[in-house]
Amino acid sequence: FNDVYSYLNKGVLEIGGNLNDFYNNGSSYSDRGLCSKGTKFIFNGTGNQTVTAADGLLNFKNVEFNNSDITFKNTEITCYIEKDEIVNGDLYIREIDLNGHKLTVNGNLQLRNKITLNGGELYIAGDYNAAIPVTNSDGTTGYTGGYLNMNNVNDKVSVTGDFNTCIDYIYDYDFNDVYSYLNKGILEIGGNLNDFYNNGSSY
Questions:
Q1: How far apart are CA 75 and CA 93, in angstroms?
Q2: What is the model's pTM?
Q3: What are the beta bridge partners of residue 51?
């Protein structure tokens, strides 16, 4: 339980059709199944390609979309990119590092964990949704979602639609140092800003 071993460590894997991962250990969003520790996945088909994972998550490590017509069917991805990428349609992200590049999403973006820009740019033609509704044990509705990590002066996020968030962007470590994920760069919002964060206390 200390060292994680993967069979996908190096090289390139090109996919011209659909990707279907039927692995499911009974838990949503696990770190198992199709999990690359270094192999680059390249989607280079013509026409629409679909990406589906039975457990809802794929860990690509490094991914390249030569075909921008990709449909993610209830599937989130974890990865980083090595060049500017375009996705025509909705994109579901668990965690991604833009690595200084531009990611264009011609649709909505749903975020469960984190986007690190590292001097990169994120353009969303639709809504930024990091406030995902969940049903609590008492039947009430709560929210879960991710955050933007913007610590470079060149970081830029442009959202044409609504910006929906639910997390606390400021953390106080040991009650001494206050840390924020929104320190530098620019965030442009063309629609409404909806902050669903609520810790039960005013201020």
A1: 8
A2: 0.85
A3: 19, 72
With tokens 């090109």, the residue in question is: 14
Place of tokens 């991805």: 77
Distance CA 130, CA 52 (A): 21
The residue whose two tokens read 């001097």 is: 119
The three-point CA angle 52-57-63 to 5° equals 80
Each of the 203 residues of the chain gets a pLDDT tens digit; together they read 344 456 888 999 999 999 999 987 665 555 567 888 889 999 999 999 999 998 888 888 889 999 989 999 888 898 889 999 999 999 999 999 999 999 999 999 999 999 999 999 999 999 999 999 888 888 888 899 999 999 999 999 999 999 999 988 776 555 555 567 898 999 999 999 999 987 554 44
